[in-house]
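As noted in the main text, all predictions were made from sequence alone. Below is one such record, for MFS transporter, PPP family, 3-phenylpropionic acid transporter.
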Amino acid sequence: MTATGRSAATESTGNESTGEPTGNESTEPEDAGSEDGSETGADPADRRPGWIRARPLAATRASYAALYAVDGAMLPFFSVFLAFVHGLDTAQIGMVLAVSSAAAVIAPPALTVAADRYGRAETLFLFILAASAIALSVFAFVGGYWWVVFVYAAFSLAREPTRPLLDGIFFASQRHITALARVSYHKVRIWGTVGYMVPGVLLYFVLTDRHSLWLLPLVAAGLAILGVAVAAMLPTGPLAGAPGARIGGPAREGSGEPEQPRETVTLTGVARAAGALLRVPSTAVFVVAMFWLQVAVTAYSTFYPLMATEVVGLSPRWLGLVTNLGVLVEIAYMAAFGWLVRRLGWRWLMVLGAATATVRVALLAAFPTIGVVVGTQVVHGMVIIVSMVAGRVILDRRAPDAIRHTTQGLYAMLVLGGGRIVGSAFGGLVASDDLSRVFWAAALAALVAMLGLAWSLRDERPVAADGSSL
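Prediction:
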């Protein structure tokens, strides 16, 4: 699939991007090691301690782990937290999540466009991580429906851009740091899965009863503060060179030559390139299909805790461990991601993931038992690698370099943000009468997504054993 030309978003002429890596093993770039540490792509002007500069991959993995640990402390418990601590009904819970999801429509595109325009993605990332930690700390002490709506929306405004920014930082860093260019996205993103699991184990011992659920925002805030410290060690972070962060346009690795002037990215050019990307019919249908898949995933994740506790009778303290069962299996799916892409191709991997999502929610709607609640966690990883990993990689394959952050921001806005708004708000209204109805509606949304993905990816080229397109 040919990407939109770079020249659409820059004032100078550049080569068209191929959108690689593919999400599998990328072709290893020529190693140009030198005694100044440039074999990792490190900048000789890097002011950080040597043990950090020498480990760009470790710092990147740790950033993903710390970022997703915050999700692990909140998401498995959140609807139960709102119901038991704040006394909200399902319609109100859906509205809280819908309003907060609007942040995914507003914040990610604004900040990712700024990252492409001004080249300060890492500085923005640190700032919004700190803002999210502050908002979580305040959230622990508010009461009343409207205060909950307001403060959680403020948290989401800071939180939602973090994932696309970190993804964009990684994708861009791969293009000039050898140690990262050798590694596929899924092998870094898997550390987010590992980080997600840790709070579930910790909270099993912290949540002694329903009243102790109020501690959740404080635990998440502590993890967000840890994330700020870890993100400062990112290999292209604000301390990595003088006078500031940089992404793209490096000199040849190990050559010792001065960095080439950065192309000037204009806001008009970014908008034009993004519009051209979305005007491609197959890309437009792909985005719509991923939107409906996100609707189904959101309805599931929002009301699954209530199904498990109120219908099945599971104690809230077990939610983290039950969720971790799915996340543990998810690690295996993440590890097998490259193999699955090579065996199935992008098209059938995405179709299989959407079909899995359809069957999972249909089983929960038809048979709300402890066996189904726990057993369906086994297929959770398949849904995640399709909705949260493969979708991002496919768009990155199609995006020009000049809007690499913007592309991830558009995905967060149109797919994650829009899907969460619809899945939360509509799901809350449907669930007010019968929780099973929201799972039937989610099954229909996932089925629509499956058909859309089958059509939009019909021309995707097969993937070779080395991860390149055939």
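Residues 266-469 form a domain with the Growth Hormone; Chain: A; fold (CATH 1.20.1250.20). The chain is about 65% helix and 0% strand. These features were considered when defining construct boundaries for the mutagenesis experiments described in Section 2.9.
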